[in-house]
Design the sequence.
DNA sequence: GTAATAGTGTCTGTTAGACATTATCGA
DNA sequence: TCGATAATGTCTAACAGACACTATTAC
């Protein structure tokens, strides 16, 4: 607490303060974004089937010092007239050309020496975007190379700049947690979806999620059925889709309900 | 991304960079700590009974500009040679004189104009400390007034400086979430505790947690009994305590197990 | 028909939730 | 003895988990 009191050396005039600082201040506060997307790839089979989905992370290849030639997270410096979240939103907009999507704060990375340019405190976010949103950038901005990588590639095969490997690890842990504890799965699904699609989305983010009775459980237990609901047309007939299967499957959508989880209940 | 590239204007020498920055940088990056404690008050009854527990938050009364005379969270500025977490730990140590305790990152507060001293980006933490740890400060540091308040007092009765009301709201939400989803209850309990004590601790942080069959549920269901275990002596006899009741109650301790929660399972 | 995915029937053992009952000890 | 808290008994309905079975469509 004493630091705070003395930091500005008793000067009570905010306008003159900036010239009188006694302590070193950070050299920059960027927002870095771990952009996740779920790629869809058609399977070449005879009959209808679900596309293969795979979780990917978007990285850029740096052109200048530091870490030139290495892969890193997209990011940009925060400015005085915006919050860190604003900076992240702006950055996301610049990368995708789209305003929407899920953007969530991940944490702060401030280990001394993490950035050779000086005292740079980075704020990490993760975003869930659709695959087509990333094509925007590849088309409009040819200054830097853009790549989509699986988590394994990003973590174990690529040389990453800064402490971005740590950030991606943390982001991966967090998206897995959120996938099971919230309804962010909706970000990777159309508004109406089948339960197989939902199950597949969950599994592509959390590979060891296995629930043999998934459909039964989510539709027939009082405590869980609330988070999704059947889609019906104007007359109240259930809507179904046979886009991915011979037999049509019931369509569902997420409700606004969010159950409260507890280890004790 | 372009910001990042241009930020240092192509200068590749880190030593000279600080003099050549073209953009304004933050004026300070403090760590503010929401210190929670659970006070224990003996009940004056004839027979043995559990003490009354109440969640409190520790605030200090500011002596100087800005917000002189208002209550605020304890905090201190982060220095160049430490991480934000280090700064928070240092601050916690200064306030309590103790090194341990639970300290967890809460988030960043960076709304422009939030601090009249300039561009100040605050990082909030929350800590769980024992009541006696706060007496240290009251004894050794008489420069500023220290107070322990209930959440209701802090949020609705006090005039708080900065955006600290928002921070306390967020911290309260978070500690409630963590109380139900993790085993942070252990921070407020002795190493060995009775199930009534555990139940009471949970309830004092999450008042609307009600589980009439709490004891039954936590001891007899396979999925939940793993997080705690009975305490036994060397011969394997169960240990119990009649500190708070006539009939002795079985003592338990937390295990290291942490169940994975999911809205789908 | 066959293949492929959607969805239900059925069975057993476990859990939830409510309420009554017994246990242990101090005063 | 009574009073207070700890812990178990008991009963019904709901749920979990496994596996077999039926349903709907494309080809």
Sequence:
């Amino acid at each position: 607490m004493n630091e705070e009191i003395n930091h500005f050396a008793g000067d009570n005039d905010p306008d003159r303060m900036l010239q009188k600082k006694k302590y070193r201040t950070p050299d920059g506060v960027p927002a870095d974004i771990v952009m996740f997307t779920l790629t869809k790839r058609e399977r070449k089979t005879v009959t209808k089937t679900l596309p293969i989905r795979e979780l990917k992370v978007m990285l850029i290849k740096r052109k200048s010092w530091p870490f030139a030639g290495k892969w890193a997270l997209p990011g940009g410096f925060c400015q005085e007239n915006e919050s860190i979240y604003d900076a992240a939103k702006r950055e996301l907009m610049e990368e995708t050309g789209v305003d929407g999507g899920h953007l969530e704060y991940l944490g702060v990375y401030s280990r001394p020496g993490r950035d050779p340019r000086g005292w740079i405190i980075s704020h990490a976010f993760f975003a869930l975007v659709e695959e087509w949103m990333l094509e925007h950038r590849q088309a409009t901005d040819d200054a830097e190379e853009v790549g989509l990588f699986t988590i394994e590639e990003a973590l174990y095969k690529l040389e990453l700049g800064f402490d971005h490997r740590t950030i991606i690890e943390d982001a991966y842990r967090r998206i897995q947690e959120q996938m099971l504890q919230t309804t962010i799965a909706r970000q990777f699904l159309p508004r109406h979806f089948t339960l197989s699609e939902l199950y597949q989305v969950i599994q592509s983010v959390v590979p060891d999620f296995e629930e043999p009775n998934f459909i039964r459980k989510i539709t027939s237990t009082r405590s869980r059925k609330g988070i999704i609901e059947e889609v019906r047309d104007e007359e109240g007939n259930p809507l179904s889709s046979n886009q991915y299967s011979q037999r049509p499957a019931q369509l569902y959508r997420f409700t606004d309900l969010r159950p409260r989880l507890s280890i004790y209940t």
